[in-house]
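Bit of a strange request maybe. I'm writing a small parser for structure token strings and I need a real example to test against, not something I typed by hand. Could someone generate the tokens for this chain?
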Amino acid sequence: MEIEIKSKTDDEMVFIVRDAEVPFINAIRRCAIVNVSKLAIEDVNIIRNDSAMFNEVLAHRLGLTPLVSNINAIGGLPLPEDDDYEDHPGVMFSLQEEGPKVVYSKDLISSDSIIKPVYDTIPLVKLNEGEKINIEASAKLGYGKEHAKWIPTTVCAYKQYPEITFNDDVDIDYDCALACPRGVLKSDRRSKKIKILDIENCSMCKSCVRASANGYINVGYHKNDFIFRIETDGSMSPKEVLLKACEELGNKTDKFIRFSEEGGSK
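Reply from user aminoacidic:
Good idea to test on real output. This should exercise your parser:
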């Protein structure tokens, strides 16, 4: 198996995996979504809320506010499967504001100097003149399989590597390149051919195939090659999400092997 990183930023990573199989790639995708622990506000104590927003809606917004959850920030915090999880207070947040103003995520005061909202400009609630809000909240680690607020990725998807071929037995159909919605193809009448500008941007929609009257172009894919994309909400880097997902997949595999070796007794 070969892996090639095509692009990487703080919140997004695109890489190519060659000589792999769909079940393996999909297992990594699922682990990245539901088995990577992340910090999110779990318990909310609304002491005062004079705004027009219902308490439940406000608590839901707080829970979906991305919090810094990299390995340096969450070290030492218990996981849901730990015995002391329920008794641990978590990371405490407080919010005390008075209108008129729009209350943003930056107004959340954390008990931990490292753990805070990833973005400062997320609007939480609007307060009119004289309206006050007083909230205490606790953030804990959790998994995406329990609630969407613990999913670290906003995009975690893959597609099989596209393949575009041409039928040399028929006349060149220059018009089929115009049908591509992503500009992957370009007609070059001077060199008498259709150029492939960016094969990896092809969505395999086959608009070009349907537009070709004589079947000049064919769109398929490499069966065991994939383009994988991970985008996070900023709570942790895509590289960390990928590493944790692979580690969790390895742990599951080891557990299954032990189960098989012990004759299925546990």
